[in-house]
Amino acid sequence: MAGTSGGTTVLDSATRELTRAVLLFSLDGRARPHSTTSDALVDRLDFGRFEPHLRSSGAVLPVPVLTEHLGPDELRPAHGDHALALAAAELLVLATPRGDVTLLVDCGFAADTTPDALAAWLADTCFDRRRILLGDRPLLDVVNERLALPTPLTYGQNVHQLVFPGGRLRRDLLSADLADATRRAALLNEIVYRGRLPAHRTSEAEDTLPPNLRNHGVTLSAHGRGVSVQAGWAPHVENGLILVAVGMISALAVLQRTRLAAFETMRANERAPMTDSPYEVRSLISRLSAGVNELQLDLAFGVEAYVDSLLIPEMLMEAFQSSLRDTLGIRDSLENSARMVERLTSVIGARSAALDAELAERDDRRDRTVSALVAAATLIALPPTLLLTYFGVNGTNVHSDRSIFDLDTYGTAYALAWLPFVVLAVIGYLLLRRVSRRSGALLSPPDGRPATVPAPRSPSGS
Questions:
Q1: What pLDDT does 4 receive?
Q2: Which of 346, 304, 341 is closest to 325 using CA atoms?
Protein backbone atom coordinates (compact mmCIF):
# COMPACT_ATOMS: atom_id res chain seq x y z
CA MET A 1 0.00 0.00 0.00
CA ALA A 2 2.96 2.35 0.23
CA GLY A 3 5.89 3.54 -1.79
CA THR A 4 8.88 5.75 -1.12
CA SER A 5 9.90 8.93 -2.85
CA GLY A 6 12.98 10.83 -1.73
CA GLY A 7 12.99 8.98 1.58
CA THR A 8 9.40 9.97 2.39
CA THR A 9 6.71 7.31 2.63
CA VAL A 10 3.79 7.99 0.29
CA LEU A 11 0.61 6.12 1.13
CA ASP A 12 -1.87 4.97 -1.49
CA SER A 13 -4.70 6.11 0.79
CA ALA A 14 -5.39 9.73 1.69
CA THR A 15 -8.02 12.05 3.08
CA ARG A 16 -9.94 14.23 0.63
CA GLU A 17 -11.95 17.17 1.88
CA LEU A 18 -13.54 18.23 -1.42
CA THR A 19 -15.25 15.99 -3.93
CA ARG A 20 -13.66 15.45 -7.35
CA ALA A 21 -15.60 14.23 -10.39
CA VAL A 22 -14.00 13.22 -13.69
CA LEU A 23 -16.16 12.92 -16.80
CA LEU A 24 -15.03 10.69 -19.68
CA PHE A 25 -16.79 10.93 -23.05
CA SER A 26 -15.87 8.81 -26.05
CA LEU A 27 -15.81 10.86 -29.26
CA ASP A 28 -16.48 9.67 -32.79
CA GLY A 29 -13.76 10.73 -35.21
CA ARG A 30 -9.99 10.60 -35.40
CA ALA A 31 -7.32 12.94 -34.06
CA ARG A 32 -3.80 11.60 -34.55
CA PRO A 33 -1.41 12.95 -31.90
CA HIS A 34 1.75 14.74 -32.98
CA SER A 35 4.70 13.63 -30.88
CA THR A 36 6.51 16.93 -31.47
CA THR A 37 3.70 19.12 -30.10
CA SER A 38 1.89 16.90 -27.56
CA ASP A 39 2.99 16.42 -23.96
CA ALA A 40 2.93 12.96 -22.42
CA LEU A 41 0.07 12.17 -20.08
CA VAL A 42 2.50 11.48 -17.24
CA ASP A 43 3.65 15.08 -17.55
CA ARG A 44 0.12 16.37 -17.03
CA LEU A 45 -1.07 14.15 -14.16
CA ASP A 46 0.63 12.88 -11.01
CA PHE A 47 0.92 9.08 -11.11
CA GLY A 48 3.31 8.73 -8.19
CA ARG A 49 4.87 5.29 -7.92
CA PHE A 50 3.05 4.18 -11.09
CA GLU A 51 4.98 6.66 -13.22
CA PRO A 52 7.90 4.32 -14.13
CA HIS A 53 5.42 1.82 -15.61
CA LEU A 54 3.78 4.55 -17.65
CA ARG A 55 7.08 6.03 -18.80
CA SER A 56 8.09 2.67 -20.24
CA SER A 57 4.71 2.35 -21.98
CA GLY A 58 4.60 5.91 -23.26
CA ALA A 59 4.25 4.85 -26.91
CA VAL A 60 0.97 3.05 -26.10
CA LEU A 61 -0.69 5.63 -23.84
CA PRO A 62 -3.20 8.22 -25.05
CA VAL A 63 -1.69 11.67 -25.52
CA PRO A 64 -3.30 15.04 -24.66
CA VAL A 65 -3.91 16.91 -27.91
CA LEU A 66 -5.79 19.74 -26.19
CA THR A 67 -5.63 21.04 -22.63
CA GLU A 68 -7.75 23.86 -21.22
CA HIS A 69 -8.11 25.22 -17.67
CA LEU A 70 -11.70 26.32 -17.05
CA GLY A 71 -13.03 28.81 -14.58
CA PRO A 72 -15.84 27.98 -12.12
CA ASP A 73 -18.50 29.69 -14.26
CA GLU A 74 -17.39 28.47 -17.69
CA LEU A 75 -18.65 24.87 -17.57
CA ARG A 76 -22.45 24.92 -17.59
CA PRO A 77 -24.53 21.70 -17.60
CA ALA A 78 -27.85 21.77 -19.41
CA HIS A 79 -29.98 22.13 -16.27
CA GLY A 80 -27.78 24.34 -14.12
CA ASP A 81 -25.31 23.55 -11.36
CA HIS A 82 -27.78 21.50 -9.21
CA ALA A 83 -26.72 23.47 -6.12
CA LEU A 84 -23.10 22.33 -6.48
CA ALA A 85 -20.30 24.86 -6.24
CA LEU A 86 -17.81 24.10 -9.01
CA ALA A 87 -14.42 25.47 -8.00
CA ALA A 88 -12.49 24.78 -11.20
CA ALA A 89 -12.29 22.33 -14.08
CA GLU A 90 -9.69 21.11 -16.52
CA LEU A 91 -10.45 19.85 -19.99
CA LEU A 92 -8.24 17.35 -21.81
CA VAL A 93 -8.74 15.74 -25.21
CA LEU A 94 -6.83 12.46 -25.27
CA ALA A 95 -5.93 10.62 -28.47
CA THR A 96 -4.45 7.13 -28.73
CA PRO A 97 -1.72 6.32 -31.29
CA ARG A 98 -4.52 4.97 -33.53
CA GLY A 99 -6.33 8.32 -33.28
CA ASP A 100 -9.22 7.23 -31.02
CA VAL A 101 -10.39 10.21 -28.99
CA THR A 102 -11.69 10.58 -25.43
CA LEU A 103 -12.82 13.85 -23.86
CA LEU A 104 -11.84 14.20 -20.18
CA VAL A 105 -13.32 16.90 -17.93
CA ASP A 106 -11.80 17.00 -14.42
CA CYS A 107 -14.05 18.89 -12.00
CA GLY A 108 -13.45 19.94 -8.42
CA PHE A 109 -16.21 21.21 -6.14
CA ALA A 110 -15.69 24.01 -3.62
CA ALA A 111 -17.88 22.68 -0.82
CA ASP A 112 -19.52 19.54 0.50
CA THR A 113 -21.62 17.69 -2.05
CA THR A 114 -24.89 16.03 -1.18
CA PRO A 115 -25.59 12.62 -2.79
CA ASP A 116 -28.84 13.69 -4.45
CA ALA A 117 -27.29 16.85 -5.95
CA LEU A 118 -24.24 14.90 -7.14
CA ALA A 119 -26.46 12.20 -8.68
CA ALA A 120 -28.50 14.85 -10.53
CA TRP A 121 -25.32 16.55 -11.78
CA LEU A 122 -23.95 13.23 -13.02
CA ALA A 123 -27.21 12.42 -14.81
CA ASP A 124 -27.30 15.86 -16.42
CA THR A 125 -23.72 15.72 -17.70
CA CYS A 126 -24.28 12.20 -19.03
CA PHE A 127 -27.70 12.11 -20.66
CA ASP A 128 -27.66 15.75 -21.80
CA ARG A 129 -23.96 15.94 -22.60
CA ARG A 130 -24.64 17.45 -26.03
CA ARG A 131 -26.13 20.48 -24.25
CA ILE A 132 -23.18 21.12 -21.94
CA LEU A 133 -21.96 24.66 -22.56
CA LEU A 134 -18.51 26.14 -22.33
CA GLY A 135 -19.30 29.77 -21.81
CA ASP A 136 -22.19 30.44 -24.19
CA ARG A 137 -21.34 27.77 -26.77
CA PRO A 138 -21.71 23.99 -26.85
CA LEU A 139 -18.67 22.33 -25.32
CA LEU A 140 -17.84 20.16 -28.33
CA ASP A 141 -18.12 23.11 -30.73
CA VAL A 142 -15.39 24.87 -28.78
CA VAL A 143 -13.25 21.73 -28.74
CA ASN A 144 -13.58 21.30 -32.52
CA GLU A 145 -12.70 24.93 -33.07
CA ARG A 146 -9.56 24.63 -30.96
CA LEU A 147 -8.46 21.38 -32.63
CA ALA A 148 -9.29 22.51 -36.19
CA LEU A 149 -9.59 18.94 -37.48
CA PRO A 150 -10.63 18.20 -41.09
CA THR A 151 -13.62 16.21 -39.77
CA PRO A 152 -15.28 17.53 -36.58
CA LEU A 153 -15.57 15.24 -33.58
CA THR A 154 -18.98 14.14 -32.32
CA TYR A 155 -20.13 12.56 -29.07
CA GLY A 156 -19.94 8.77 -29.04
CA GLN A 157 -22.13 6.32 -27.17
CA ASN A 158 -19.93 5.77 -24.12
CA VAL A 159 -19.66 7.77 -20.93
CA HIS A 160 -17.92 6.95 -17.68
CA GLN A 161 -17.85 9.22 -14.64
CA LEU A 162 -15.47 8.78 -11.72
CA VAL A 163 -16.41 10.24 -8.35
CA PHE A 164 -13.79 10.75 -5.64
CA PRO A 165 -15.88 11.75 -2.59
CA GLY A 166 -14.65 14.25 -0.07
CA GLY A 167 -15.81 15.69 3.23
CA ARG A 168 -18.96 14.30 4.79
CA LEU A 169 -19.78 12.15 1.76
CA ARG A 170 -16.45 10.40 2.08
CA ARG A 171 -16.92 9.82 5.81
CA ASP A 172 -20.39 8.35 5.25
CA LEU A 173 -19.11 5.95 2.59
CA LEU A 174 -16.10 4.83 4.64
CA SER A 175 -17.92 4.51 7.93
CA ALA A 176 -17.15 1.18 9.62
CA ASP A 177 -20.31 1.29 11.73
CA LEU A 178 -22.49 -1.69 10.83
CA ALA A 179 -25.55 0.48 11.40
CA ASP A 180 -24.43 2.63 8.49
CA ALA A 181 -24.13 -0.29 6.06
CA THR A 182 -27.65 0.27 4.78
CA ARG A 183 -27.03 3.99 4.36
CA ARG A 184 -23.77 3.28 2.52
CA ALA A 185 -25.57 0.93 0.14
CA ALA A 186 -28.21 3.59 -0.51
CA LEU A 187 -25.56 6.25 -1.14
CA LEU A 188 -23.65 4.05 -3.58
CA ASN A 189 -26.88 3.12 -5.32
CA GLU A 190 -27.90 6.75 -5.74
CA ILE A 191 -24.52 7.92 -7.08
CA VAL A 192 -23.59 4.93 -9.27
CA TYR A 193 -27.02 4.78 -10.89
CA ARG A 194 -27.29 8.60 -11.06
CA GLY A 195 -30.52 8.61 -9.02
CA ARG A 196 -32.32 6.52 -11.64
CA LEU A 197 -32.99 3.59 -9.28
CA PRO A 198 -34.81 3.83 -5.92
CA ALA A 199 -32.40 4.12 -3.00
CA HIS A 200 -34.73 4.75 -0.08
CA ARG A 201 -35.74 1.13 0.51
CA THR A 202 -33.24 -1.25 2.02
CA SER A 203 -34.07 -4.36 -0.03
CA GLU A 204 -33.97 -2.46 -3.34
CA ALA A 205 -30.69 -0.78 -2.42
CA GLU A 206 -29.09 -4.10 -1.60
CA ASP A 207 -30.44 -5.76 -4.76
CA THR A 208 -28.94 -3.07 -6.99
CA LEU A 209 -25.69 -2.58 -5.09
CA PRO A 210 -22.86 -2.14 -7.62
CA PRO A 211 -19.68 -4.26 -7.60
CA ASN A 212 -17.75 -3.37 -4.45
CA LEU A 213 -14.06 -4.08 -4.97
CA ARG A 214 -12.70 -2.83 -1.65
CA ASN A 215 -14.23 -1.63 1.59
CA HIS A 216 -11.80 -1.77 4.49
CA GLY A 217 -12.97 1.38 6.25
CA VAL A 218 -10.00 3.26 4.74
CA THR A 219 -10.73 2.92 1.02
CA LEU A 220 -13.71 1.96 -1.08
CA SER A 221 -14.09 1.15 -4.76
CA ALA A 222 -17.45 0.47 -6.36
CA HIS A 223 -18.76 0.97 -9.87
CA GLY A 224 -21.46 0.31 -12.43
CA ARG A 225 -21.25 0.59 -16.22
CA GLY A 226 -21.30 4.37 -16.20
CA VAL A 227 -20.15 5.59 -12.78
CA SER A 228 -17.32 4.64 -10.44
CA VAL A 229 -17.07 5.70 -6.80
CA GLN A 230 -13.51 5.67 -5.48
CA ALA A 231 -13.16 6.88 -1.87
CA GLY A 232 -10.08 7.21 0.33
CA TRP A 233 -7.40 6.99 -2.37
CA ALA A 234 -4.38 9.23 -2.79
CA PRO A 235 -4.27 11.51 -5.88
CA HIS A 236 -1.77 9.31 -7.77
CA VAL A 237 -4.08 6.29 -7.32
CA GLU A 238 -7.05 8.37 -8.45
CA ASN A 239 -5.17 9.33 -11.61
CA GLY A 240 -4.23 5.70 -12.21
CA LEU A 241 -7.88 4.69 -11.91
CA ILE A 242 -8.80 7.47 -14.35
CA LEU A 243 -6.27 6.13 -16.86
CA VAL A 244 -7.71 2.62 -16.53
CA ALA A 245 -11.22 3.96 -17.17
CA VAL A 246 -9.96 5.95 -20.20
CA GLY A 247 -8.54 2.74 -21.67
CA MET A 248 -11.78 0.86 -21.09
CA ILE A 249 -13.98 3.58 -22.60
CA SER A 250 -11.68 3.97 -25.61
CA ALA A 251 -11.56 0.18 -26.16
CA LEU A 252 -15.35 -0.09 -25.94
CA ALA A 253 -15.77 2.70 -28.50
CA VAL A 254 -13.33 0.98 -30.86
CA LEU A 255 -15.21 -2.30 -30.48
CA GLN A 256 -18.49 -0.66 -31.37
CA ARG A 257 -16.95 1.08 -34.38
CA THR A 258 -15.30 -2.16 -35.49
CA ARG A 259 -18.59 -4.05 -35.26
CA LEU A 260 -20.36 -1.47 -37.44
CA ALA A 261 -17.47 -1.43 -39.93
CA ALA A 262 -17.54 -5.23 -40.13
CA PHE A 263 -21.24 -5.19 -40.99
CA GLU A 264 -20.65 -2.50 -43.61
CA THR A 265 -17.86 -4.57 -45.15
CA MET A 266 -20.20 -7.57 -45.25
CA ARG A 267 -22.88 -5.51 -47.01
CA ALA A 268 -20.36 -4.18 -49.52
CA ASN A 269 -19.33 -7.74 -50.30
CA GLU A 270 -22.96 -8.84 -50.72
CA ARG A 271 -23.93 -5.88 -52.91
CA ALA A 272 -21.10 -6.48 -55.39
CA PRO A 273 -22.15 -9.15 -57.97
CA MET A 274 -19.64 -11.55 -59.45
CA THR A 275 -20.86 -10.50 -62.90
CA ASP A 276 -18.71 -7.39 -62.74
CA SER A 277 -15.60 -7.21 -64.82
CA PRO A 278 -12.51 -8.86 -63.34
CA TYR A 279 -10.94 -5.43 -62.89
CA GLU A 280 -13.93 -4.21 -60.83
CA VAL A 281 -13.95 -7.39 -58.73
CA ARG A 282 -10.21 -7.11 -58.14
CA SER A 283 -10.66 -3.48 -57.08
CA LEU A 284 -13.48 -4.51 -54.71
CA ILE A 285 -11.35 -7.25 -53.16
CA SER A 286 -8.52 -4.77 -52.62
CA ARG A 287 -10.86 -2.32 -50.87
CA LEU A 288 -12.42 -5.02 -48.71
CA SER A 289 -9.00 -6.43 -47.78
CA ALA A 290 -7.75 -2.97 -46.81
CA GLY A 291 -10.86 -2.47 -44.65
CA VAL A 292 -10.41 -5.82 -42.91
CA ASN A 293 -6.75 -5.00 -42.26
CA GLU A 294 -7.84 -1.79 -40.54
CA LEU A 295 -10.34 -3.73 -38.45
CA GLN A 296 -7.62 -6.13 -37.34
CA LEU A 297 -5.34 -3.22 -36.41
CA ASP A 298 -8.17 -1.60 -34.44
CA LEU A 299 -8.82 -4.78 -32.49
CA ALA A 300 -5.13 -5.29 -31.77
CA PHE A 301 -3.96 -1.76 -31.01
CA GLY A 302 -7.22 -0.06 -30.08
CA VAL A 303 -8.69 -2.74 -27.81
CA GLU A 304 -6.28 -5.49 -26.79
CA ALA A 305 -3.57 -2.98 -25.88
CA TYR A 306 -5.77 -1.42 -23.15
CA VAL A 307 -7.76 -4.27 -21.62
CA ASP A 308 -5.05 -6.12 -19.73
CA SER A 309 -2.85 -5.15 -16.76
CA LEU A 310 0.39 -4.66 -18.68
CA LEU A 311 0.28 -0.85 -18.61
CA ILE A 312 0.05 -0.65 -14.80
CA PRO A 313 0.87 -4.10 -13.39
CA GLU A 314 -0.40 -3.29 -9.88
CA MET A 315 -3.08 -5.08 -7.88
CA LEU A 316 -4.77 -1.76 -7.08
CA MET A 317 -5.37 -1.19 -10.79
CA GLU A 318 -5.91 -4.80 -11.87
CA ALA A 319 -8.97 -5.38 -9.68
CA PHE A 320 -10.75 -2.27 -10.96
CA GLN A 321 -9.71 -2.92 -14.55
CA SER A 322 -10.87 -6.53 -14.50
CA SER A 323 -14.19 -5.71 -12.83
CA LEU A 324 -14.95 -2.77 -15.14
CA ARG A 325 -13.95 -4.80 -18.21
CA ASP A 326 -16.35 -7.57 -17.21
CA THR A 327 -19.14 -5.10 -16.45
CA LEU A 328 -18.74 -3.48 -19.88
CA GLY A 329 -18.60 -6.90 -21.55
CA ILE A 330 -15.42 -6.04 -23.42
CA ARG A 331 -13.89 -9.51 -23.35
CA ASP A 332 -16.89 -11.23 -24.96
CA SER A 333 -17.33 -8.40 -27.45
CA LEU A 334 -13.67 -8.63 -28.40
CA GLU A 335 -13.86 -12.37 -29.00
CA ASN A 336 -17.03 -12.06 -31.07
CA SER A 337 -15.67 -9.18 -33.12
CA ALA A 338 -12.42 -11.04 -33.76
CA ARG A 339 -14.40 -14.03 -35.05
CA MET A 340 -16.44 -11.77 -37.31
CA VAL A 341 -13.30 -10.25 -38.78
CA GLU A 342 -11.79 -13.72 -39.30
CA ARG A 343 -14.89 -14.84 -41.19
CA LEU A 344 -14.84 -11.68 -43.27
CA THR A 345 -11.25 -12.51 -44.14
CA SER A 346 -12.33 -16.01 -45.18
CA VAL A 347 -15.17 -14.65 -47.33
CA ILE A 348 -12.88 -12.17 -49.05
CA GLY A 349 -10.31 -14.93 -49.57
CA ALA A 350 -13.00 -17.14 -51.13
CA ARG A 351 -14.05 -14.33 -53.46
CA SER A 352 -10.43 -13.78 -54.42
CA ALA A 353 -9.99 -17.51 -55.09
CA ALA A 354 -13.16 -17.55 -57.20
CA LEU A 355 -11.84 -14.59 -59.17
CA ASP A 356 -8.49 -16.30 -59.71
CA ALA A 357 -10.26 -19.47 -60.89
CA GLU A 358 -12.46 -17.47 -63.23
CA LEU A 359 -9.47 -15.61 -64.64
CA ALA A 360 -7.58 -18.87 -65.09
CA GLU A 361 -10.56 -20.39 -66.89
CA ARG A 362 -10.88 -17.29 -69.06
CA ASP A 363 -7.17 -17.44 -69.93
CA ASP A 364 -7.52 -21.13 -70.74
CA ARG A 365 -10.50 -20.45 -73.01
CA ARG A 366 -8.62 -17.64 -74.67
CA ASP A 367 -5.59 -19.85 -75.25
CA ARG A 368 -7.76 -22.61 -76.70
CA THR A 369 -9.51 -20.11 -78.95
CA VAL A 370 -6.25 -18.65 -80.18
CA SER A 371 -4.87 -22.16 -80.81
CA ALA A 372 -8.00 -23.11 -82.73
CA LEU A 373 -7.83 -19.91 -84.77
CA VAL A 374 -4.17 -20.50 -85.58
CA ALA A 375 -4.89 -24.10 -86.56
CA ALA A 376 -7.84 -23.06 -88.71
CA ALA A 377 -5.84 -20.27 -90.31
CA THR A 378 -3.04 -22.72 -91.04
CA LEU A 379 -5.49 -25.27 -92.44
CA ILE A 380 -7.08 -22.64 -94.63
CA ALA A 381 -3.90 -20.88 -95.72
CA LEU A 382 -1.63 -23.80 -96.59
CA PRO A 383 -3.61 -25.35 -99.50
CA PRO A 384 -4.04 -21.98 -101.29
CA THR A 385 -0.38 -21.28 -100.65
CA LEU A 386 0.58 -24.60 -102.26
CA LEU A 387 -1.74 -23.94 -105.18
CA LEU A 388 -0.41 -20.43 -105.67
CA THR A 389 3.09 -21.82 -105.59
CA TYR A 390 2.12 -24.45 -108.14
CA PHE A 391 0.50 -21.94 -110.46
CA GLY A 392 3.40 -19.54 -110.04
CA VAL A 393 5.90 -22.07 -111.32
CA ASN A 394 6.77 -21.67 -114.94
CA GLY A 395 6.26 -25.38 -115.69
CA THR A 396 4.91 -27.44 -118.57
CA ASN A 397 1.83 -28.41 -116.56
CA VAL A 398 0.68 -24.81 -116.18
CA HIS A 399 -0.99 -23.37 -119.27
CA SER A 400 -1.13 -19.63 -119.65
CA ASP A 401 -4.29 -19.80 -121.71
CA ARG A 402 -6.33 -21.70 -119.11
CA SER A 403 -7.97 -20.37 -115.93
CA ILE A 404 -6.67 -21.62 -112.61
CA PHE A 405 -10.27 -22.61 -111.77
CA ASP A 406 -10.37 -25.08 -114.65
CA LEU A 407 -10.88 -28.28 -112.66
CA ASP A 408 -10.67 -30.49 -115.75
CA THR A 409 -7.09 -29.37 -116.20
CA TYR A 410 -5.99 -28.70 -112.62
CA GLY A 411 -8.30 -31.02 -110.62
CA THR A 412 -5.42 -33.30 -109.69
CA ALA A 413 -3.43 -30.33 -108.29
CA TYR A 414 -6.41 -29.21 -106.19
CA ALA A 415 -6.89 -32.75 -104.88
CA LEU A 416 -3.22 -33.14 -103.94
CA ALA A 417 -3.28 -29.75 -102.18
CA TRP A 418 -6.48 -30.26 -100.13
CA LEU A 419 -6.68 -34.02 -99.62
CA PRO A 420 -3.97 -34.33 -96.88
CA PHE A 421 -5.62 -31.61 -94.74
CA VAL A 422 -9.08 -33.11 -95.15
CA VAL A 423 -7.73 -36.55 -94.20
CA LEU A 424 -5.97 -34.97 -91.16
CA ALA A 425 -9.19 -33.27 -90.03
CA VAL A 426 -11.18 -36.53 -90.35
CA ILE A 427 -8.57 -38.53 -88.44
CA GLY A 428 -8.53 -35.88 -85.64
CA TYR A 429 -12.33 -35.99 -85.39
CA LEU A 430 -12.36 -39.81 -85.19
CA LEU A 431 -9.66 -39.81 -82.50
CA LEU A 432 -11.64 -37.28 -80.40
CA ARG A 433 -14.76 -39.45 -80.68
CA ARG A 434 -12.76 -42.48 -79.59
CA VAL A 435 -11.40 -40.64 -76.53
CA SER A 436 -14.92 -39.53 -75.59
CA ARG A 437 -16.21 -43.12 -75.82
CA ARG A 438 -13.43 -44.41 -73.63
CA SER A 439 -14.18 -41.73 -71.01
CA GLY A 440 -17.82 -42.82 -70.94
CA ALA A 441 -16.80 -46.47 -70.58
CA LEU A 442 -14.74 -45.60 -67.54
CA LEU A 443 -17.74 -43.97 -65.87
CA SER A 444 -20.16 -46.89 -66.58
CA PRO A 445 -19.44 -50.60 -65.93
CA PRO A 446 -19.72 -52.96 -68.95
CA ASP A 447 -22.77 -54.81 -67.56
CA GLY A 448 -24.77 -51.63 -67.21
CA ARG A 449 -25.01 -51.79 -63.41
CA PRO A 450 -24.23 -48.62 -61.46
CA ALA A 451 -20.64 -48.27 -60.40
CA THR A 452 -19.85 -48.88 -56.75
CA VAL A 453 -16.98 -47.55 -54.71
CA PRO A 454 -15.23 -50.28 -52.69
CA ALA A 455 -15.16 -49.73 -48.96
CA PRO A 456 -11.79 -48.73 -47.57
CA ARG A 457 -9.85 -51.55 -46.01
CA SER A 458 -8.96 -51.41 -42.35
CA PRO A 459 -5.30 -51.13 -41.36
CA SER A 460 -5.33 -54.82 -40.34
CA GLY A 461 -6.37 -55.81 -43.83
CA SER A 462 -9.74 -57.32 -42.77
A1: 42
A2: 304
